[in-house]
Protein: Glycerophosphodiester phosphodiesterase
Amino acid sequence: MKIYAHRGCSGTYPENTLAAFRAAAELPIDGIEIDVQLTKDGKMVVIHDERINRTTNGKGYVKDLTLEELQKYDAGSWFSEEWSGEYIPTLDEVLEIFQDTEHILNIEIKSDIFPYVGLVDKVINLATRRGLLDRMIISSFNHEDVQKVCHETDAKSAIITSQIYVDIYDYARVIGTKRLHISLPSAYRKMTTEALRKGSIVYVWTVNSLEYAQELQKIGIHGIFTDYPERMLKELK
Ligand code: G3P
Ligand code: MG
Structure:
């Protein structure tokens, strides 16, 4: 079962910061998950929430602030004073860390609340320019964007969901992918057993307990996203 660092090593470093990704880059794990949004001036930044309130000392929506404005805020001290120099990184800064590693890069397009028109194209263009497209999985809760990736590129893609489906394998097939990134409770649903039987590639988020990870491995789940990749690596393999 593959191990992916969720928002970098987000259990031990402030999530989605260069510190969290540098730590993940040092580990012999399979991949990294990276949340991406667009700033007011159309730059790709790595942050999970649509608002910066929880993970910085600022306030407001990512979409309403320019890159320069966003990067003035501290994105580390909410987690621990030790990380007070961290800021919201651009996607390009994060990709630079992984330019010469072998990790798979799962870019999550955060376009399910705000549409972030043009974000998919920008991600594809940057990945292509850096020669990283064949090491990427592009995923989203916004399945129209996943369909766009499937229709317009050769990139690997995945739908993300925490919903219950009667036949999620067929649903994903219509979109154009076999990859499902599902929430932990969904992993124990009939839909998941069926999808695995039909040939879906299923990754589960967010798995921080070893007991759950071992159970998921037993039922044939292909990968997990965890905030503690270093611990999972040690205990699971
Ligand atoms: O991509 C898997 C997982 O990260 C989806 O949920 O809210 O942590 O971005 P979230
Ligand atoms: Mg995510």
Summary: The first helix runs from residue 18 to 25. The mean pLDDT is 98. Strands lie at 2-6, 31-38, 44-46, 104-109, 136-140, 156-161, 179-183, 201-205, 223-226. The chain has one domain: 2-236.
